[in-house]
């Protein structure tokens, strides 16, 4: 048996590339035919499974007010996890445990006010939990300001604590020896890479130092939190537009407040172009300063969200195929995609850091004749 | 886009901003600054050490070149000294030779002179002797003449023959 496999693998390796491609295509076509055949028999069941998967993915991408690891029984509302504190500002601070919502099944009553979960958002309702809709099917209920410690906030906390622990320890290790010790051996090359290949080339030797803290923090924050998003814990912090918005606005604020005269001159009164062009360019350039951080925000958000949607869809295919070829194939695809997502996690952190450095560089660029 | 704005959670934004700025400030104080300083110190240390090594190498080369030059000089000097000594020796030998030659010539000359004078003296002595002998012979001849003429002649002849031998 063992020998048979070996020879099979060997002969497989010796096959030219196009034979392999043909093989894969035939397999895929075969599955398709098979799946279509099955479709007739149980299309109804399949439809509900598909919508269930879709709903699950949608749910996965959202933040939640409790920390649910997995659900044992949907019918009886049995979940494994723990509740998180809900903090609301609704004519005064209201703090209560998210267990009061019973995973969105019931209305929470606090100080005579009633709150319900509607699509992951807390809305104010009456005692029965009525949701009022407008013509376009939007909930018209009052949404109190929600400062809850949600699942994502917990993870932001955890990553912040992890980073503090790791890097403070690393910094301490330099006191005893000039060479890094332990995890510092892994982290130091990355820190040096950010300094030598991101900060210095984009910002310049003169000014890069004041931006190093931000660049390093943002790189490691995005990277670590992206990696945590790939774990089975099922958190994705960076696919929340609020998170990427917070990061992008910091880049924007730092760029704006450290910018020199030259930077503003290039925005409002572009040198070396006719006066007419100066007037035309000014609003475009001004808009550009907002578009730059906006692109940062959308890029990180969209990449991580797309990665998660595709990965989970492929995982979901495993349950739709339910046959001995389709499921392993979708497992293989999901595995390959996970590897790709590992790369994307680092790549997006790199791109965010790189572009931030580029914007800082333009903000402190010294005047030189064109 | 509408869905994005709908999904936007102000609470998450607030916490993200707050926590991120907090961790940024803490890391700057407790991690990034010490780490970057340590790395920079190390790098400048390495740079200094390399420069020092380079300098030491250059100095070493200089020293080697110097000692090489000194050695060369010393060798040249030694050669010159040996040459000088050899020349001096040769000169001394030739001087001594000349001197000895002159002395020997002088001595030979003196000896020749002495021999000459001795010879002259000896010749003078012989002359005297011959004169004396001649006188004696003459005396004897005269005495012989007076006794026997034949004998007298014979005697004279003998005498003369003797003189010839000398």
TrEMBL record, chain B:
<keyword id="KW-0812">Transmembrane</keyword>
<dbReference type="InterPro" id="IPR002146">
    <property type="entry name" value="ATP_synth_b/b'su_bac/chlpt"/>
</dbReference>
<keyword id="KW-0813">Transport</keyword>
<protein>
    <recommendedName>
        <fullName>ATP synthase subunit b</fullName>
    </recommendedName>
</protein>
<feature type="transmembrane region" description="Helical">
    <location>
        <begin position="6"/>
        <end position="27"/>
    </location>
</feature>
<dbReference type="InterPro" id="IPR005864">
    <property type="entry name" value="ATP_synth_F0_bsu_bac"/>
</dbReference>
<keyword id="KW-1133">Transmembrane helix</keyword>
<keyword id="KW-0138">CF(0)</keyword>
<keyword id="KW-0175">Coiled coil</keyword>
<comment type="function">
    <text>Component of the F(0) channel, it forms part of the peripheral stalk, linking F(1) to F(0). The b'-subunit is a diverged and duplicated form of b found in plants and photosynthetic bacteria.</text>
</comment>
<comment type="subunit">
    <text>F-type ATPases have 2 components, F(1) - the catalytic core - and F(0) - the membrane proton channel. F(1) has five subunits: alpha(3), beta(3), gamma(1), delta(1), epsilon(1). F(0) has three main subunits: a(1), b(2) and c(10-14). The alpha and beta chains form an alternating ring which encloses part of the gamma chain. F(1) is attached to F(0) by a central stalk formed by the gamma and epsilon chains, while a peripheral stalk is formed by the delta and b chains.</text>
</comment>
<comment type="similarity">
    <text>Belongs to the ATPase B chain family.</text>
</comment>
<dbReference type="InterPro" id="IPR050059">
    <property type="entry name" value="ATP_synthase_B_chain"/>
</dbReference>
<keyword id="KW-0066">ATP synthesis</keyword>
<comment type="function">
    <text>F(1)F(0) ATP synthase produces ATP from ADP in the presence of a proton or sodium gradient. F-type ATPases consist of two structural domains, F(1) containing the extramembraneous catalytic core and F(0) containing the membrane proton channel, linked together by a central stalk and a peripheral stalk. During catalysis, ATP synthesis in the catalytic domain of F(1) is coupled via a rotary mechanism of the central stalk subunits to proton translocation.</text>
</comment>
<dbReference type="Pfam" id="PF00430">
    <property type="entry name" value="ATP-synt_B"/>
</dbReference>
<keyword id="KW-0406">Ion transport</keyword>
<comment type="subunit">
    <text>F-type ATPases have 2 components, F(1) - the catalytic core - and F(0) - the membrane proton channel. F(1) has five subunits: alpha(3), beta(3), gamma(1), delta(1), epsilon(1). F(0) has four main subunits: a(1), b(2) and c(10-14). The alpha and beta chains form an alternating ring which encloses part of the gamma chain. F(1) is attached to F(0) by a central stalk formed by the gamma and epsilon chains, while a peripheral stalk is formed by the delta and b chains.</text>
</comment>
<keyword id="KW-0472">Membrane</keyword>
<keyword id="KW-1003">Cell membrane</keyword>
<dbReference type="InterPro" id="IPR028987">
    <property type="entry name" value="ATP_synth_B-like_membr_sf"/>
</dbReference>
<keyword id="KW-0375">Hydrogen ion transport</keyword>
<feature type="coiled-coil region">
    <location>
        <begin position="46"/>
        <end position="105"/>
    </location>
</feature>
